[in-house]
Every structure is written in C-alpha cells, then in structure tokens.
What does this fold into?
Amino acid sequence: MRDAIALALENNLDLAYFRYNLPIAQTDLLRTKAGGAANGVNTSIAQGTQGGFSSSGTGSGGGSSSGVTAAGAGGLVTSTLGNGAPINSFDPQLSVQGFVDHTTLTQVNTIQYGVPILKQNTIELASSYSQAFSLGTSFNVTDYGVRQTTNSIYNILSPELTTNFNLTINQPLLQGFGLGTNERFMHIAKKNIQLTDLGFKAQVIATITQVENIYWDLVNAYQDAQIKERSLAYANETLSDDQKQFQLQNVPAMQVMKDQAAVATSEGDLTVARATLRLNELLIKNALTKTIEDPALAEMPVVPLDLTGASDPNADKPVNVLITDAEKNRPDVSEDQIAMQIAQDNLRTIKNELLPRLSLYGQFIGAGFGGQLNPVCALNTECTTTLPSGFSGAFQNTFNYSSPEYQVGFSLNVTLRNRVAKADQFRAVLDYRQKELTFEQQKKSILLDVRNSQYALQQAQARVTAAEQARDLAQKTFDISKQEQKLGAMSSYDTLTSEQALAIAESAVFVAQSAFEKAKVDIDRATGETLDRMGISIDDAKSGVVTHLQP
It folds into this structure.
C-alpha cells in the first residue's frame, strides 16, 4: 500500500494536472500587483483516473476561485466579485516618440513670412512617464524638445529651440480612493492562492482515497482468484478420483457427470475471477503510472502485499468528536471560510462605486527657449537675442522658473441615479446571503457525511464478523464431510458441494473485508485525516518527489 501511494504521488496524472494550478495562482497574484483583474484559478478536483469510486464519493472542495462567470439558463451569469471603481496600472509606463519633418508651403501673401515659398525643417522628440499607486494617486511627466529651422526673414531665430516639461498629479478623493478599492484584486488573488493550496490538498485526499479503493479492489480480486483456483483444483481432483472409482464400478456414472459439471462451473468462475483480476491490475497501473502504452507493463502482473489494513479508531469515536475533526481538517471547510471572507471584502469595496468621482489635481509646466540668430533675418536692429544658443541652455531654462505655469483644480463627476452601481451593490448583498446559506448547507453535509461514513464502517465491520462466522461453519462442514466420506457415510460429490460452499463463504469474507477496508478509507476522507493517517507530506505531493513516507 505504501509503495502504491508513493507511486501515485509521483506519477498520478490527476495530481500532475492540478499541480499546474499552483503556479497559475502565483501568476494571477503577479497580474493583480500591476492593477490587473484576477483571472481566477480552477480548484475543482480532477478525477480522470478510472476505478476506485465509492458510493459516498471522494469529497471535493466546496470553494472555488474559477473566475467570475458561470453558465446560466439564459447564457452567462456574471458575478459582482471584483466590481468597483476602475484601477489604473501600477506598472510604470514609458513612452518615447520622435519625428523629422520637412514642410514646403507656397505663400499667397508674403507679409507674414516675407518669402513666397516657406520652408521649414522640424525635429521633435517627446517622452512621457506615468504611474499609479494603491491609494489611487497617479502622476504623469511629459517632456519634449523641438528644433525648427525656417527660411522666413521675419524669424529672429533659426534654428529655433523649444523645450517643455509638464508634471501632473491626480488624487481621487471619493470613488477610487483607498487601498481597499485599488488593491481588491490583489486581495482576491492572495485568497485564491490559499484556495488553490487547499484545493490541492483536497485533490491529494481524493486521489489517495481513490488509489486505496483501487488497491483493496485488487486485493479482493487477487484473493478471489486464488480461491477459484483452489476450488477448481479440488473439483479436478474429485473428478479424477471418481473416474477411477467408476472404472472399478464403485460409483455410478451420474456421480462422474456431476463432477464434470462442477469442474465446468469452477472453470467458468475462475475465468471470470481472472478477468476481474486483470481489470483491477490495469486500473491500479493506470492510477500509478504516467502511461501504460508499454505492452510489457500492461501485461505485467501486480501482486498486493498488504492483504489487511491497520486498525482504525474512528469506528468507536463519538460522532461529535469526528465532526469536530472534520471541521478542523477538511480542506473544503477552510475553502468555504475563505470564500466567505472574499464575499465580505467584496461587500466593502463595491460600496466605493456608489460615490461620486471627485478628484484633486495639480500641474506644473516649465518651458525653455533658445536658438541661433537667423542668418536671413530682415528685422535689422531687432535681430538680436539673449536666449541660449543650444539645447542645454534651453533645457536649463525649463526648470529655472523663467516661464513657469502652476495650476491646481478639481474634477467632479456625479452619475445621477447611478442605477448600475446600486444594482451591483444590492446584488453583492444577495450573493453574500446565498453564500451564507451555502456555508450552512456545507456544515450539514459534513455532518451527514461523517455520520454516514461511521455507520458504513460499523456495518462493514459487522458484515466481516458475520462472514467470518459463516466461513468457519463452512470450514467445519467441509472437514466433517471429508471425515464422513472416508467412513463411507457421504459421497465425494457431497464433499465437493461442501468445498464449493466453503469457497463461496471465503469469497464473501474477502468481499466483506474489502468493503471494511474501503469504509475505513472513506471515514478518513470524511474526517480529513487521510494524509495524517498515511503519513503523506503535502510538500512531497506538490513537488511530485516522495522524500519520506511514514510507515
């Protein structure tokens, strides 16, 4: 059993599939740290492996973070989770743009520029840097420089140099203000990581439970095949003895025919038992390996070594203790609690959308100018300048407050009636009420699940006791039949019939024992103790490499 569990942790495809959800949840957190919406992570248990399912189920997580949409009767039903004021990107954005331009314009009137054909050469380079923060604050810095030459005789400077610097800071005061509003997706992503970890634990429990059930089905099939082989051997032995006695005319031909019928029946039973064994061997290979395409692996027999499991104290524990253990250990309970926390946070953040959009902003603009004297300037004595001739001087003037502009203002935007936000907020309250009911329903389901598992365990234990008593009686009957056959009081066919009854009783014992072992597996699942009982490290399950497994 321990070897089977170790192989399942390393090779089972359901676990391998779910492991991808762990880094997916981390990428979601990375996305939300930049202000993006959480895409969500699917925490549903994968059950692609065949076999090993019990009537009580394998237990699945009650919470899911698989996005915000679900299939509805009329199409897509969209959740209000994450609704609220728009969030700007927290990642800095840098933009650079430049161009070179040559323009030739025919002038109808030469008074403005002094030439019939105006020619201009322009080189411009602009850059901007913007970023937003968790409080809603955002700023934008823009800087550009222009160099322009012209053949106009009325321009003092050619080339003419212009630089400009613009700093704008904006702060929302109502809608869009606060860490709770702007980091809401980040909080959801962090909760989703917790949900994914719990979902992985639920996946490990489901997979290990399934592997254990497959293993005990294999044990039952293996023992049943051995019983059928022994029964066929005894039937052949009885037929051989009776054929010899028939040749000596000590038994009638009818008895030999009955023996032949018994042999045929035993052969059919053995064929069915071997086919069942081969099927269960294939199922456990499928659960413990990544592929079964190798013909040698498909044909390789599997021999179970542990024919009985360890004792389980849960059969005698008070049900209140079992329910307490289940509420403490089961991952789906924690998943539902986290889902309730997410819903509570959503109630708080979605209220921000009801507020008006009021923002306060401040702006500083600085400009610098420079250039060289125009060699074709026709303004005579006015063709002089004190401006710097190069870009360095013009850029310096941008920040020396020679041409500053300051501006402080506010922006108010009120959505009258605001029915969309009101509807979202009211629906979020209704969704929360539904989650409360789901949470209470989950508690009831756990209570019923635990009680049902304990009842099933007690019933299975009683069936094992009854089957063992029936087997002991069948064994005594068979022993007495053999003794009476030796004394001549019973025929060999009567003894064969007793042996067949013994084989049926032994098969019933193994069936009952298998059901008992699976009931122990199920109550461990119901109470969330599967990993502790089997000594499984969740870190080993995450890595897919078993470093230790407690005996």
Remarks:
- The CA atoms of residues 283 and 484 lie 45 Å apart.
